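Lecture 7, part 2: worked example. A protein chain together with fe (ii) ion.
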Amino acid sequence: MTAPDPFEWTVAALKNHLDAGEDLFVLDVRNREEFAAGRVEGRTAPPTLNIPYFEILEAGGADDLVEAVKIYAGRDLADKLPRGKPIVTVCARGGTSAIVAEGLRAAGFPAVNVAGGTQAWGSLYTSLALVNSPALKVWQVARPARGCLSYLVACHGDALVIDPLRHTDWYVSFARRYGLLIRSVLDTHAHADHLSGGPALAKAVGATYHLHPYDAIHPIDVLPATISYEPLRDRQIFNVGTSRLEVLHIPGHTLGNTAFLLDGKYLFSGDSLFVGSIARPDLGGHAEAWTPLHHDSLRRLMALPDDTLVLPGHAASPGEAGADGVFGGRLGGLKRSNEGLRKAAGSGKEFLAYILASLPEFPPQYVEIKRANLGLIEPDEDRAGELELGKNVCALESRCAK
Ligand SMILES: [Fe+2]
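Predicted complex, written out as structure tokens:
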């Protein structure tokens, strides 16, 4: 076994350093457009400077790449980069940032490169056991680069996966490691912000894939899905070992939007209710028509017991996690802290005005992502990476009082 490179961190190591709140500085050498779409951050966002690689080389002027970086860093970055703390260099694949890290070290900065860059960061998954009783186990699976959350529910070896993300091998390996038999794979809705791993995971493990039929028609193209799926229906029950998972059809974010209530205690809210905000109802192009549905659906969820643990499909920011690292909150607490939920308690007219005033920009790639999730197109790996660049924006602006 070779010793780990002291000048290079894996993305998993980077996540640990960030979550521990270590004093780091990030130099991101991707182009400005890529950087604007999303940066690496843990529970807190480290101070970050973006200087594209080619600008560094051009300004450095030397033929030798490392020497060019050294000249530029010594001359132009002396008052921009801190001394005495690790400078973490990041690029798209980890190659050019390795050259920058070497040049920085030659100029006297303690630089460390991130292996695999943001591409590796985008395929990093972490898991956290939310429930770990002898019978029932629930894991929250996070993909930090996208702020996406998915869940594995297991009881007596039977398992079910909710909203799996694109890198399905991760779930297959996880199930194998814990001796789980995945029988069902459920999507809370046809996602627009990320490529679903649902159909592929179901196929890989011989499980059934489930989606609400209203979401099996592209809302903008008005074309039917070509993927095969079992239709979800309101009040349907999935038995997982001795646990029961109930389907709640809660249209609004999409027409076929669903949430799942496990044993009356844990609400997998998908993209309806988040910790700090609520879902946007405009991604199908029908904000005004769908907002009253969203209003009714949120009120249906609010009628659940206050101690229901809400487990969302997205995190707006890594800082939304509690001290235990879990993204979630008791419904009673969210009724007080979550502005969208407070607005949902009011009249439909006020709620509509609030929604229409709070909609973030519509990301154009979301139309294409939904096509892919319905099987209407098949993006290759490079295109998939482009479509999923940066953070999701499935929520209204986060206005959590927490
Ligand atoms: Fe969504």
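The mean pLDDT is 92. Residues 189, 191-193, 253, 271, 394 surround fe (ii) ion (CB under 6 Å). Keep this in mind for problem set question 3.
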